[in-house]
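Q: what sequence does this backbone want?
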């Protein structure tokens, strides 16, 4: 049985596993994903990413993994700011990573950024392989949140850091009310217009609403073995930034 409500929320049907459906969904929306993402977040997602990456600056990580890397936006930005020796972007969607591979090639970063198809609950990497792991807007799509976090803990070296950015639901007036309208009407409408996959963009606000946030998510990360877990709400609580140390 799923532990958390968002693990029950699937893009298409009840028959297939969440992982299979999420892979299918991202393969479907890959061509339109980047443009739509920037439109839906009014470009603020770039600022959130920079804030997340800046947390890692004092530690100068050399071996990094970006989980649920999608089209590689976060990986490219992290590589430009942090200059790691190697960064591997992992995802279950080859469609998204193919867009990412082309972006990395155009950015001239193919010698440092690579991509690998991975299930985050069963990573193929050895213990203590990375000194920093990042996940931007991907943890709510995990089929099993606890397993995903435990696997990231396993492949992190002692003293390594985990940075998670995740969309969240604002809790205070008037942002809470404005966000409700935005998520129920604007996101699905724009999603339908741009990506021709309406299910994907009804799934998106539903999965955000169901996802544990703030103190609850902090405790879940701690339970996976991490210490010094902190979080910060960004842009009136539309996004939350988590930072943890192994």
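A:
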């Amino acid at each position: 049985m799923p532990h958390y409500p968002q693990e029950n929320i699937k893009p298409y049907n009840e028959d297939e596993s969440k992982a299979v459906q999420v892979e299918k969904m991202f393969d479907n929306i890959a061509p339109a994903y980047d443009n739509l993402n920037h439109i839906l977040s009014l470009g603020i997602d770039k600022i959130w990413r920079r804030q997340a990456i800046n947390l890692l600056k004092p530690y100068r990580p050399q071996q990094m993994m970006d989980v649920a890397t999608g089209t590689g936006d976060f990986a490219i930005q992290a590589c430009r700011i942090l200059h790691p020796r190697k960064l591997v972007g992992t995802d279950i969607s080859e469609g998204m990573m193919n867009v990412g591979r082309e972006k990395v090639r155009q950015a001239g970063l193919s010698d440092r950024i690579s991509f690998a198809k991975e299930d985050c609950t069963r990573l193929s990497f050895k213990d203590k392989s990375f000194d920093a792991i990042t996940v931007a807007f991907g943890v709510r799509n995990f089929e099993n949140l606890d397993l995903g976090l435990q696997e990231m803990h396993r492949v992190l070296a002692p003293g390594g850091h985990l940075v998670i950015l995740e969309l969240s639901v604002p809790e205070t007036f008037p942002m809470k009310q404005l966000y409700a309208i935005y998520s129920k009407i604007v996101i699905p409408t724009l999603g339908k217009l741009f990506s021709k996959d309406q299910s994907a963009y009804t799934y998106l606000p539903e999965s955000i609403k169901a996802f544990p946030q703030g103190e609850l998510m902090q405790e879940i990360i701690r339970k996976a073995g991490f210490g010094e877990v902190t979080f910060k709400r960004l842009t009136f609580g539309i996004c939350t930034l988590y930072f943890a140390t192994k």
